[in-house]
Structure formats: structure tokens, C-alpha cells
Write a structure and sequence with these properties.
D-Maltodextrin-Binding Protein, domain 2, 11 strands
Length: 296
């Protein structure tokens, strides 16, 4: 994905986070300093959140938006610890996380801000053009270890996965692996960009990435069409097939706040769900939603 110029915000210890627009915006010498809004979490969403931040700061020049990744789990932990205003997540919060939130008197508010298809990517030299959900499951759980078991060449399968702090890792495990463990041979990559790089370099590699990343890496990697089962049609991951529900590996993308958002956090959410914000969703290769849907 392309790199975007984002203001670097210095977060001082003790600064008020949620509703940062209500924090003290005067420096020790009495001069006005920018308000700071922090957005932390999903690596899948970091470029999208950065695009939103860029547009938001143009409209709100007195606000600095600091966007960082690290994975959905990292962002959720930051929300629970009070160290981010907004958490970006490519999965819903888990029951154990909701329990931790209740124990800390945190009230997570979940907003659906976009949808995403998970593209299955292989090296361009791989002759396969499609794969079934069951084949994916058997590869990633270690039942299949050679490409000739799924109609490919006599070549060892090199499994590439995100780390377990990633919402994409969790989604793939739940939706594709039916909650079974990843094969011990799976290589855990620190970022989606690393999966793209390793897939482009390794003939036997297979990985999974967000739809926007796959579009950006076109030519470096090959995207496989996916069948729900052997009798279903092979479906290409596109905005249209994700919206229609035809493509079987898709998900919602979320922003979380602690309680009903207010002030600058509310304004940022409104921007993300505005026509301009949703246009950015589509331009980044994700699937826009008509409006934000608060589900918790």
C-alpha cells in the first residue's frame, strides 16, 4: 500500500485520551498546542485509517491524528488500558476481552466502518487458479503439505500467516480452519507486507491478505479464486462479490471507542462514515458501507 504523510503526534504521559478534544490544549508556556487523537490496532486497516486521518486533519487543522498498527489484539488491549482513543479492528472483540472490559469499567462501542475480502495469494509461477475452502483448511492445518495434493506441481507448500495478535489471523482461523490450530510449519509474518514479499519470492508459498493489499501488489503475486465447496463456482475476490456475499472469505472492519464517542473521536467516526470517508474505503480497495452500524 502507498505511504501517506501523517503528522507525528507526541503523546505525553497523563494526557486525556477518550474525547481528547476536551483535554487541556495549552502548553506549559500558555501557547495553544494541537489536540491529539490516537487510532491504534489492525494492520489491515492502518493504511485506511491513515487515509481517513489525512482527510480529517485537513478539515480539522487543530487536531493531530496518530495512527499506529500492531494488530487488532494490540489495539483492543490499548482500548482496555486507556491508551488509545479509537481501536481499529478487523474482528469483533472476543468474550474474554469483553469480560476484561467489564472488569475495568470499559464499555466498548463497536462500529462497522467497512468490509473486506481476504484474498488467497500464491507465487505467480504457481499454475493453480482456484482453491476450495476445504483445501485451504487442509493446507493450513497441515493435512496437505505438497501442491500436487491439490492439483498443482510437486512442490512443498510453504504456509504464510499473520501473527496471532492480528485480527486477520483470528478471522482466518475461525472462518477457514473451523477453529483448528494452524500447522506448526506455518510461518508467522509480522505484517501483511511481509506476506506479500515472501509470496512473491517463494515458488511454493501461499498466504492471505486484505483485498486492498492484493490489489496494490498486483503483478507481484497471484490471487486465487475460491470455491465454498467442490460443487460451487470459483469466485474472484472483488468489491462486488464481497458485497453480494458470493465470495466466501470476507468480513466486517470495525472502529471501537470506550462508550458513546464524543468530541474529536465522534467527529473522526463521522468522517470515516461520511461520503468522503467511504469514498476512501473504495479507493483503498475495501468495500464501503452505506452507513455506520453500531452493534454493541
Amino acid at each position: 500500500m502507498r505511504s501517506l504523510p501523517i503528522k507525528v503526534a507526541l503523546i505525553v504521559a497523563g494526557a486525556a485520551l477518550c474525547g481528547c478534544g476536551q483535554s487541556d490544549n495549552r502548553s506549559a508556556g500558555g501557547a495553544a498546542r494541537p489536540q491529539v487523537l490516537t487510532v491504534k490496532g489492525s494492520d489491515t486497516m492502518v493504511h485506511l485509517a491513515s487515509t481517513w486521518a489525512e482527510g480529517f486533519m485537513k478539515a480539522h487543522p487543530k487536531v493531530d491524528v496518530a495512527v499506529t498498527g500492531g494488530g487488532s489484539g494490540t489495539g483492543i488491549a490499548a482500548l482496555l488500558n486507556g491508551t488509545t482513543d479509537i481501536c481499529a479492528a478487523s474482528r469483533s472483540m472476543e468474550e474474554k476481552e469483553l469480560k476484561q472490559a467489564a472488569e475495568k469499567h470499559i464499555k466498548p462501542k463497536e462500529f462497522v466502518v467497512a468490509r473486506d475480502g481476504i484474498a488467497i495469494v500464491v507465487n505467480p509461477a504457481n499454475p493453480l487458479n482456484e482453491v476450495t475452502m476445504d483445501q485451504l483448511k487442509k493446507m493450513y492445518t497441515g493435512t496437505y503439505t505438497n501442491w500436487n495434493e491439490v492439483g498443482g506441481l510437486d512442490e512443498p507448500i510453504v504456509l504464510l500467516s499473520r501473527e496471532n495478535s492480528s485480527g486477520t489471523y483470528v478471522f482466518f482461523q475461525e472462518h477457514v480452519l473451523a477453529r483448528k490450530d494452524y500447522a506448526p510449519s506455518a510461518r508467522l509474518m509480522p505484517a501483511t507486507s511481509a506476506i506479500i514479499q515472501e509470496t512473491a519470492a517463494g515458488k511454493g508459498a501461499i498466504g492471505y491478505v486484505g483485498l486492498g493489499y492484493a490489489a496494490e501488489a498486483k503483478g507481484k503475486i497471484k490471487v486465487l479464486n475460491v470455491r465454498k465447496d467442490a460443487d460451487s463456482p470459483a469466485v474472484e475476490p472483488t468489491i462486488e462479490t464481497v458485497v453480494s456475499g458470493e465470495y466466501p472469505v470476507s468480513r466486517a472492519l470495525f472502529l471501537y471507542t470506550n462508550g458513546e464517542p464524543a468530541g474529536t473521536a465522534r467527529a473522526f467516526l463521522d468522517f470515516a462514515l461520511s461520503p468522503e470517508g467511504q469514498k476512501a474505503v473504495e479507493e483503498m480497495g475495501y468495500v464501503p458501507v452505506k452507513q455506520g452500524v453500531s452493534v454493541k
